[in-house]
Write a structure and sequence with these properties.
- By secondary structure, the protein is mainly α.
- The protein has a single domain, classed as 23S rRNA-intervening sequence (de novo design (two linked rop proteins)), CATH 1.20.1440.
- The chain has four helices and no strands.
- The protein is elongated and about 45 Å long.
- The two termini are 14 Å apart.
């Protein structure tokens, strides 16, 4: 088991969750049960999968949940692309967010490599 709150990737994920929630507050109200919810669920899934994996008893299980977290990150990117396409946001508004998502990807991949070495 790993100490969740000591994982930098978890902290970075929480930061991005806050930014996505702020961003989606500006989405049209008719998207509340659509894109807004999907984007919020996907970004939250990143940190929840990291959390769940950190509580597993083996590195192999943790790796599986890190894979899920990475998939959720890709889902967030796709949702942001949809939001751009629908003019709910603009490229400038999500530039920093996209950069942080890429950083999270790198951190997840790095943590995964580290865990694989320990198997």
């Amino acid at each position: 088991m790993h100490n969740l709150r000591k994982l930098d990737v978890y902290a970075k994920g929480l930061e991005v969750v806050g930014e996505v929630y702020k961003l989606t507050k500006g989405f049209p109200k008719e998207e509340l049960l659509g894109l807004t919810t999907q984007l919020r669920r996907a970004v939250t899934s990143i940190v929840l999968n990291i959390a769940e994996g950190s509580g597993c008893g083996s590195n192999k299980e943790f790796l599986r949940f890190l894979s899920y977290a990475l998939r959720s990150k890709h889902e967030v990117v796709a949702c942001l692309d949809v939001a751009l396409k629908l003019d709910y946001t603009n490229k400038e508004a999500i530039k920093d967010l996209e950069s942080k998502l890429e950083e999270i990807s790198s951190m997840i991949i790095g943590l995964s490599r580290s865990l694989k070495k320990k198997e």
